[in-house]
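User: Structure please.
Assistant: Input sequence and predicted structure:
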Amino acid sequence: MNNDNIIIKETIIVRSSSLIKSITLILSFSVLTAVGAWIEIPTQPVPFTLQTFFVLLSGAILGYRYGFYSQVIYLIMGVIGIPVFAGFSSGILKLFGPTGGYLLSFPIAAFITGYLVNKKDSYLWVMFSVASGMALVFLLGTLYLNIVYFKNIFKAISYGFVIFSWWDALKILAVTSIYKVFNNCFRLEK
């Protein structure tokens, strides 16, 4: 066996290992988002959950592309009938209900968070990046809630944003802190 064959085989092994790691982490964050949905405090029309915690962490840790993929996979799992949404629910109709805007924002929020985190690594910038992803979830979720449920923007803001702000401020701090500790261990994209 010549040196070229050895190099080719080693390259294939390294790439395969990297691909397996990427797929494992992407799927792990899809599942963690589901677990976050199951940890809920029921309120109407939108429950308190830990979903956005894992959505934002997926973008920060995995990077914009793989964070996006993890959330698309999460949505696909729910749409095809796997009970990954809050209340152990599933189905495409969840995307057209009061929480649909929040759910549909998840891949975009993971992308935005990951994209911004790539720009700088300071604690305040990472916090800004995570808060930007959260703001997108609130914006799209609240607007959608207004359109499909309340038809009153003030009620939508009250029930779709204000009641969650303290809870999500804690999630922003937690995601930022966890990212700063673990970013070198699991980061897939730079």
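The first strand starts at residue 40 and ends at 41.
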